[in-house]
Design brief:
The complex is a heterotrimer of chains A (247), B (289) and C (334). Chain B is built from eleven helices and two strands; from the N terminus they run ααααββααααααα. Chain B has 289 residues and is mostly helical. The C terminus of chain C is likely disordered. Chain C is mainly α and 334 residues long. Classes of the chains: A alpha/beta (247), B mainly alpha (289), C mainly alpha (334). Chains in contact: A-C, B-C.
């Protein structure tokens, strides 16, 4: 469903992404781990098209999308939630979801009626609001809700385009432990055929949720496999905590 | 259409002269933007003020009185504007500051009319520069050569200051990241003030220098503002390189366009502007890429 | 997205009543001023659409009005089309030009956008000034007004023309509200709040901006047509930056993004212009000081200030009337 082949990116002398090749099957839930600066967010930017790779390619549902701009890739089913909340601040939760849903249903540029009034849009808004637990907050403005709710909305907006693949950049960053647990439930609410690629730092959540784990370090893939294998390996410990030789 | 080398030399010199005049204006505007993140739309009005000051001073003390007085006087006006208006708007964000300077355009337009009247003023080229110079096979007006030399000299001086001096380093740091520069102990507010006043002085100088070539009227400010804005949009905001590149491009396209394709001439530069806006909206050499 | 609040409805009713009163009681000069206000109001609705609701602060809308005016003048006098056809043609041409400008400037923001529109507006001014087709500085005269004798209206009568203009303004207001409340209007609002996200969700952002700018151009073109018919003469001054600048001052004076505020702003501005004009020829100084004062006050213009001060109170009173319903269960008012 989502595949990269030898993705490479440098910023001047800094080689941020080195020959990253990944392959996700439909419905797979993969977590990307790696210390800060490992190039995880850069990888996301390359996947969605906000950055152009120096070499390598990105494939979505079998099609090579490397040359496609951001909006085109999004319309073909690639969606993303951001590490830093990227919401429509003056609007209500419902309006936020509605904007995304309308783009998906094709009502985002019509002149005849309000997109939020359309049944197709309202249906998606209701469905997503249920999936990410936003029903109680629909008519509240973004500025009025808590950070945790905003994090949920952040995912909700990305979901409202009914994507094939959803990239989630540190979805639980900045939220407390109960919210993080709530997140586990949220993920269970998502359609099983939705492919997920999640950047996470919360190890427990990662191992709990992932079908597979990919570990990035200094821009390259150093591990790619099942959670059990990763858990047992000393590699992760070394990457995050350093080994005795480094001290 | 002449294939005479002399003709092309003449056009090239004219283009260069126009470029240098625009450079004097655009460099002040673009560095102010790079540092303070707002565009002073009243910059053209300050140029007009420079021309007026120069004309008045010259009536009393000759061309050179105007030449030296105008930048100082306009810098003085800059001090007033900064402390009275712009400093107060710093917290309101760039759009508010831009709108305030736009209001200044209207206000200064009438202020020049009030002080100097509605009739066009004139300013004579000084005797020292009144003749023609034989150069590269043509006889070129000495005064226009003076403008070219002045522009190049100031470019050289600014390049030197920016890359080799302490204050230049502080300015470059401030352009890059003013919050960080402040943390490093650089008095960023004072830097803004100095840069703003120098920018105003350069606008005044440009006005004084342009006055003998054009007539001094209240709307000369807006006339030059548009080309200046086009220069910095094409060249890129915030950098010396952008200002010189944009000025040269504008000067040459405008001058040679007028000669080679007179019907298209006025549209040509706007077509170029449109192309830049579509292909590379930040311009050729912006301070931050 | 645009909503009518009780305050906005109230303001509209007040303005409409005042306008109608003026239309039926004023003398020749009064009607002339009323028509001037109404035509300026058309232009500032178009500008508020893109600037207030779209975040695209434009300094070329005066030039767009000029294009509409000259378009009508040329099509009706030199090409010989009927007034209706000439009106339609002029409006469409202006809309098309506006669409192109919106498309070219779609990747520019804030100050870049302002500078670019200022440049293109000025390009229009120079072109019209220099090309002999447009009569140069002398302009074009002999422009005829629309012939509505079929419905018994003689538009050559000042009062009828003023009423006709009011009708056109009302229609324009309605169209603007429709656009802003449509799917396109919501997306425009989304683009204004967070352009990057809209793009990441799959919206072709440049197209939305261009389309809205084009629609705004249609309205500006119509304003231009009305201006040409009002004065029955066009000159290059219509495309001058001062017209665009004054339009922007009116929108800011009235209240950016309120749609109703600019209507009020237009009335205040034109009346002030005539008062000041009687005393001194330094009107630009007043405009400049006015803009600086409004911007420095941090209020969103006159109507913005009124809304901020009294709006909440009035909304609460209206909400009290439907208090028994749990707000979270209320279906959206869309």
């Amino acid at each position: 469903m989502l595949e990269t082949r030898n993705l490479d990116k440098s910023f001047g002398a800094v080689h941020v992404t080195r020959g990253v090749s990944l392959r996700l099957e439909r419905g797979e839930r993969r977590v990307i781990l790696g210390p800060n600066g490992a190039g995880k967010t850069t990888l996301f930017n390359l996947l969605v098209g906000e950055l152009t790779p120096d070499s390598g390619s990105v494939h979505l549902a079998g099609e090579n999308v490397t040359a496609l701009p951001v909006a085109r890739r999004a319309r073909q089913g690639l969606s993303r939630s951001y590490q830093k909340n990227t919401l429509f601040d003056g609007l209500t939760v419902e309006e936020n979801l509605g904007l995304a849903a309308a783009i998906h249903t094709g009502h985002a540029t019509t002149l005849r009626r309000d997109s939020l009034a359309r049944p197709e849009v309202r249906e998606i808004v209701a469905e997503v609001a249920n999936q990410v637990n936003l029903m109680p907050y629909l008519h509240a403005r973004v500025s009025e809700v808590s950070y945790g709710v905003r994090r949920q909305l952040e995912v909700g907006v990305a979901l409202a385009t009914r994507p094939l693949v959803l990239l989630m950049d540190e979805p639980t960053s900045g939220v407390g432990p109960e919210m993080a647990k709530g997140f586990h439930d949220l993920l269970n609410n998502l359609p099983r055929d939705l492919t997920l690629l999640i950047i996470e730092h919360d190890m427990d959540l990662a191992f709990d949720v992932a079908d597979t784990i990919t570990v990035l370090n200094y821009g390259e893939v150093v591990f790619d496999g099942l959670p059990e294998a990763a858990r047992g390996s000393t590699l992760l410990k070394e990457i995050y905590l350093g080994s005795w030789e480094d001290a | 259409m002449s294939l005479d080398l002399g003709f092309w030399t003449l056009q090239a010199l004219n283009a260069l002269q126009l470029s240098m005049l625009l450079f004097l204006l655009s460099i002040g505007l673009t560095v102010i933007f790079g540092l303070m993140h707002f565009v002073n739309l009243a910059h053209g009005a300050l140029y007009a003020l420079g021309a007026y000051f120069a004309a008045s001073a010259a009536a009393v003390g000759g061309y050179w009185a105007g030449f030296f007085l105008a930048p100082v006087a306009v810098a003085g006006v800059g001090v007033l504007l900064y402390s009275g208006l712009i400093q107060r708007m710093r917290k309101s964000g760039p759009m508010a500051q831009v709108l305030v300077t736009f209001g200044l355009i209207f206000a200064l337009l009438d202020i020049t009319r009030i002080v100097w009247g509605d009739l066009a003023l004139g300013l004579e080229v000084p005797d020292l520069l009144a003749g023609r110079v034989a150069l590269l096979g043509v006889e070129y007006p000495a005064y226009r050569l003076f403008i070219i030399a002045l522009g190049l000299a100031i470019f050289g001086a600014l390049a030197f200051v920016l890359s080799r001096t302490q204050i230049g380093a502080m300015i470059r740091a401030g352009v890059d990241n003013d919050a960080m520069a402040a943390c490093l102990g650089i008095n960023v507010e004072r830097l803004f003030f100095i840069v703003f006043c120098v920018g105003c002085a350069l606008a005044g100088l440009a006005g004084a220098v342009a006055a003998p070539l054009l007539s001094v009227t209240p709307d000369m400010g807006l006339q030059i503002l548009i080309p200046t804005l086009i220069v910095i949009v094409i060249g890129g905001l915030g950098s010396l390189k952008g200002a010189i590149a944009g000025s040269l491009i504008f000067g040459f396209v405008q001058t040679f366009g007028a000669v080679l394709a007179p019907q298209l001439a006025s549209v040509l530069i706007y077509a170029l502007l449109a192309a830049v806006l579509v292909i590379r909206p930040v311009g050729l050499f912006p301070a931050k890429g | 997205m645009f909503r009518h609040t009780p305050l906005r409805y109230g303001a509209l009713v007040l303005l409409a009543s005042a306008a109608l009163f003026q239309a039926f009681t004023a003398d020749y000069f009064g009607l002339d001023i009323l028509t001037e206000i109404v035509i300026l109001a058309m232009l500032v609705i178009a500008l508020d659409m893109v600037a207030g609701f779209g975040g695209m602060v434009s300094l070329c809308h005066g030039a767009l009005l000029g294009v509409g005016a000259y378009g009508y003048a040329l099509l009706s006098t030199k090409v010989g089309l009927t007034p209706v056809a000439a009106m339609g043609g002029a409006v469409v041409i202006t809309g098309a030009i506006a669409w192109v400008i919106g498309a070219i400037c779609a990747r520019s923001h804030g100050i870049y956008f302002i500078m670019a529109t200022l440049a293109f507006g000025q390009m229009g001014y120079s072109y019209v000034f220099e090309a002999p087709l447009f009569g140069g500085d002398d302009g074009l005269g002999g422009i005829a007004r629309l012939d509505l004798s079929l419905i018994g209206l003689d538009l050559n009568d000042g009062r009828s023309f003023a009423l006709f203009s009011l009708g056109v303004l009302a229609a324009i207001y309605g169209v603007a509200v429709l656009i802003l409340r449509s799917g396109l209007g919501r997306s425009l609002s989304g683009v204004r709040h967070n352009e990057q996200r809209m793009r990441a969700l799959g919206l072709t952002v440049w197209r939305v901006k261009a389309d809205v700018f084009g629609l705004s151009g249609l309205i500006s073109g119509l304003a231009g047509v009305m201006a040409a018919q009002h004065v029955m003469f066009v000159s290059p001054g219509l495309l001058s930056w001062t017209v665009s600048g004054e339009a922007l001052v009116v929108v800011i004076l009235g209240g950016l993004g309120t749609l109703v505020g600019p209507l009020l702003g237009a009335a205040v501005f034109v009346l002030l212009k005539h008062e000041v004009g009687a005393l001194t020829s330094y009107w630009h100084l007043v405009v400049g000081i006015l803009l600086i004062a409004v911007v420095m006050s941090r209020a969103n213009g006159i109507f913005g200030w009124i809304e901020a001060r009294f709006g909440a109170r009035i909304e609460r009173r209206a909400a009290d009337a439907v208090r028994d319903i749990d707000p979270r269960e209320v279906k959206t008012d869309a």
